[in-house]
């Protein structure tokens, strides 16, 4: 069935959001199980690769479209920001594998929960780009994303403080600190997307 060009943009954003949720779900599972095997990391890389494809499809559609549902610059920035989130989730999984960490800390597990919750809230927030009547719900989800990001900030700081106080191996300190920071940065990226969605809604209402 032929779809209007603007509907194709919304479909691509929905697919990117779904891809982020699936990647976050898998990451959460791998952290809980400590199963960062080559096979599981390859599965995560498939999400990262699919995210790249969706971003390229968005750019191609943008180049072929004269009239867009909102500013072209916002469409491009949003697509790239969504892709950054999947890239970082894959980066996290790959770091666990490269560092041979088979027993993630409780802090890593808690950060994985926050990341999955944030990705689900982000998916709900993106719905309003297609259905502007859901603006109130979208803003509510954006507030939730901001709350989760703040929770992640506090948890990261607690994790690093505990790490410095209790871990005797300096190499492990470096590894774990990086993992905590990448996890929290990924939540930051989700918050950046939420802020962009809010800005787009304000500009187009």
Protein architecture, described:
With 205 residues, the protein is mostly helical. It has a single domain, classed as Methane Monooxygenase Hydroxylase, Chain G, domain 1 (Up-down Bundle). It is built from 6 helices and no strands. The chain has helices spanning 5-33, 38-63, 72-98, 106-126, 135-166, 170-203. α1 runs parallel beside α3 and α2 packs antiparallel against α3 (72-98). The relative contact order is 0.15. The model has no long low-confidence stretch (mean pLDDT 92).
What's the quick description here?
The chain is mainly α and 205 residues long.
Index terms:
6 helices; 82% helix; mainly alpha; 205 residues; single chain; Methane Monooxygenase Hydroxylase, Chain G, domain 1
CATH topology: Methane Monooxygenase Hydroxylase, Chain G, domain 1
Mean pLDDT: 92
CATH homologous superfamily (4th level) name: Phosphate transport system protein phou homolog 2, domain 2
Structural class: mainly alpha
Largest sheet: none
Per CATH, the architecture is Up-down Bundle
Strand segment count: 0
Shape: globular
Q: How large a portion of the residues is in β-strands, by DSSP E?
A: under 5%
**The top level CATH class name:** Mainly Alpha
Portion of residues within helices: over 70%
One letter per element, helices H and strands E, the order comes to HHHHHH
Domain module count: 1
Q: Specify Rg, calculated over alpha carbons.
A: 18 Å
Q: Helix count, per DSSP?
A: 6
